[in-house]
# Entry
Amino acid sequence: MSTEKFKLFTSNGGDVIFLVDTLLGTSINNTVPASNSSSGSLTVLGGIGINTTVNAASVTEGGSLTVAGGASIGKDLYVGGNIISSSLGGAGATFSSLTITSTQNSINFSSGSIVVEGGITIKTTANSQSVTNGGALLVGGGASIGKDLYVGGDLYINGTNQSSILGNVTIGNHAGTGVFVQSNIYIGQTMGNLNYKIIGSLRTTTDIDRVYSLTFKKLTDFSFDACIYNISELGSGWTDSNLVLSWVIFP
# Structure
């Protein structure tokens, strides 16, 4: 007994364009592509419900739905299982927006809602504004970084700018005695407070064994003074045109 229950032929009685078979299912043999939402071999004005719960096994075995070509979805897409794509490792995966609802924490290199084998690139240049406005990247919890971290802008900790500021000043020769003061060393920016810390050192390429003391005073929000004393020669002056003061400020 035939399992074919309904056939629809072309107008000349040739090819079967629509077939209902109780064993093989329903077939539409028209090959019109879906170039928009009003074209294609099958066009429906309402929704389509698929009740089978068979899971997908591969790109050619979809379980409930297998599409050999591409697909366009005008609104949101909810996926209850995993998204597995052969193109995610290359340049073929593109999402305008992607929300992952998994709440698995990242407790090691194999856990978390997203685990990637390669790197991650974020192209936006939007700067961060606060601990809740990350610009390019916002992390609500902590972060662990196994290797170096390069920051091109400022570093804020608990709302305070902790970025170091570096500078060099040529001291050179000093003919006087006692403490030499290098006045008004400009920081290069306006500090937010006067509690910043200065670490400095004196260096030279001249082959001279000489010990100095170095202190700082008259800190303002844009400059400071450096006080240098020649310990080796009990406050005498010195001849060293290559003497340079290097300093680092921590806000």
